Amino acid sequence: MVSTFPNNISTDLSGVRLDIRSLHPQIIEWRRLIHQKPELGFKEELTSKFISQKLEKWGIEHQTGIAKTGIVASIKGSKQPQSNQNNRVLAIRADIDALPIQELNEVSYCSQHEGIMHACGHDGHTAIALGTAKYLQQHRDIFSGTVKIIFQPAEEGPGGAKPMIEAGVLKNPNVDAIIGLHLWNNLPLGTVGVRGGALMAAVESFRCTILGKGGHGAMPHQTVDSVVVAAQVVNALQTIVSRNVNPIDSAVVTVGELHAGTKGNVIADTARMSGTVRYFNPNFKGFIQQRVEKIIAGICESHGANYDLDYWSLYPATINDVHMAELVRSVAEEVVETPLGIVPECQTMGGEDMSYFLQEVPGCYFFLGSANPQKDLAYPHHHPRFNFDETALAMGVEIFVRCVEKFLNS
Ligand SMILES: [Zn+2]
Ligand SMILES: [Zn+2]
């Protein structure tokens, strides 16, 4: 991915209004403060307190402690609506959690929490949402209707979106549409990845134990060899994507873990494997699971082995509304005017619990290019040296604010 980046990354902020450019140093400062105190999912107490203190200071009405550490803020526009239709509500979602990774960056604002790091950029998402909140509160005359800003815990797992929705964050007043972004080191700074339809994949997981019968490595006829059975299972699972899924659709079945045996001359009685399944097409829900189970059952049956299978869903696919995606695209192209600009080929089989919000209301999740190899800021997400170009923070605020103006005023 990195090798395809252009030689000249644009740090041009001419598409960002002056007021947001002057807010930029503060946004960077908040991001760095949050970066120094990373917290895992549902334990984002300091982060939550930091957000709440800022909102309080700016006089923004908000509710804390939603789904443990989540916050929802509301800002009402003062612009006279052109019609009743203009009294709408747009939500902006930011995730606030970090990962169990020991940071290896040598920066002044390095993580101070042993073994925990903002290695996905959620510190940046939080700072962008705060910058947007501050700007909108100071410029309420530029929009009518209401902006709700949702600070969501635990995106990296077990997932804070669902409990926040259950707690009613999309109600009272009812949210008409939602937007959110992910800083994205798979794209260079100065680009935006946005598309209608599926952006990120549904995520499912499984764990399987093959129960054979152990014995002497020289006397296989007295055993049921779990290694031979497991090897066939791993191979046969590959046929789900190659033979059962329509080639026009995309799916992944990965067995990432396989353990069996203790010694070369001992036949192992059990083999354990675990894997992940990804797909975009919601019709695959249940279908791939059924194929996994049938393949395991059939192969075990033919060898006289038994099995235990656990299969569960994590997040559904992240699917953008075409109209909201077009709205984001149209404002983003005014903000990132580089030769690369808008990148519609940005789908990934990664997962996101923004998907739950998008199942409830039309919306758009998009990627904000944040890699800059010239500054050594191009490590992948979840890497101990992950970091991004903070120029993107101002672009993120500008895109959110333009979405607010375009959605709520038109
Ligand atoms: Zn992540
Ligand atoms: Zn993330």
Shape by Cα distribution: elongated
Which parts are unreliable, with pLDDT below 50 for 5 consecutive residues or more? none
Strand content: 15-25%
The whole-angstrom Rg is 24 Å
Oligomer kind: single chain
Secondary structure: helix percent: 25-40%
Could you describe the 3D structure shown?
This protein has 410 residues and is of the alpha/beta class. The protein folds into two domains: 2-200 and 317-409, Aminopeptidase (3-Layer(aba) Sandwich); 202-313, Alpha-Beta Plaits. The chain is built from nine helices and 16 strands. It has an eight-stranded mixed sheet. It has a four-stranded antiparallel sheet with strand order 10-12-8-13, with helices on one face. The longest helix is centred in the N-terminal third of the chain and has 19 residues, at 18-36. The two termini are 38 Å apart. The chain binds zinc ion (2 copies). Residues 120, 122, 155, 182 line the site of one zinc ion (ZN).
